[in-house]
Amino acid sequence: MFLLFFLLWLLLSGGVSLHACLWGLAVSALLTWFCRRVLGYDWRIFCGRPARIWALIRYFAHLVAEMLKAGLMVMKIIYVHPKKITPKLVWFRTSLQTDRHKAMLSDSITLTAGTITVRSRDGRLLVHALDAPLAEGIEDTAFQQQLEKMEGTQWRR
Predict the structure, then answer these.
(1) Which pLDDT score is estimated for 157?
(2) How far apart are CA 71 and CA 3, in angstroms?
(3) HEC string for the chain
């Protein structure tokens, strides 16, 4: 976590100098301490077996691809048929067990253009779709399938 904060500091500082590195080390150490002690963050998710890390990389690569694809679909809907937009609310039940994976699923749905997770309750998600075709197949998305695999025995601590 310290290394991620330090790299972010260097990226945002706009250059590598002794002054920037010293301040970056101090701020990164302070943020790392704060996140672990005060906020109680557990960063063990990034540690462990390579299968765990590889599953996260595949998931986020798929997320980026779906974000780009959904963005193009929303642009098409808006520019080609703006008056034929039919918004839709869809409730669906997720089979995910952990709150972490449910949150990842709802965030992934929200990050893809044209869909927003409105509510999560009792293992069910309420999703608003900009247009009805965007809501098709939301019950069994590839996001949920990948998260179910990640929730399996390889993902448990």
Answers:
(1) 44
(2) 32
(3) CHHHHHHHHHHHHCCCCHHHHHHHHHHHHHHHHHHHHHCCCCHHHHCCCHHHHHHHHHHHHHHHHHHHHHHHHHHHHHHHCHHHCCCEEEEEECCCCCHHHHHHHHHHHHHCCCEEEEEEECCEEEEEECCHHHHCCHHHCHHHHHHHHHHCCCCCC
**Residue whose C-alpha is closest to residue 141's, from 155, 127, 120:** 127
- Asked if residue 148 has pLDDT above 50, the reply is yes
Q: What is the mean pLDDT of residues 79-102?
A: 87
For residue 92, the cross-strand partners are: 125
Among the listed residues 149, 154, 60, 147, the one whose alpha carbon sits nearest the alpha carbon of residue 112 = 60
Which tokens belong to 112?
């893809």
**Lowest mean pLDDT segment, chosen from 14-18, 73-77, 90-94:** 14-18
Q: How far apart are CA 110 and CA 125, in angstroms?
A: 11
Q: Look-up: residue for tokens 């197949």?
A: 137
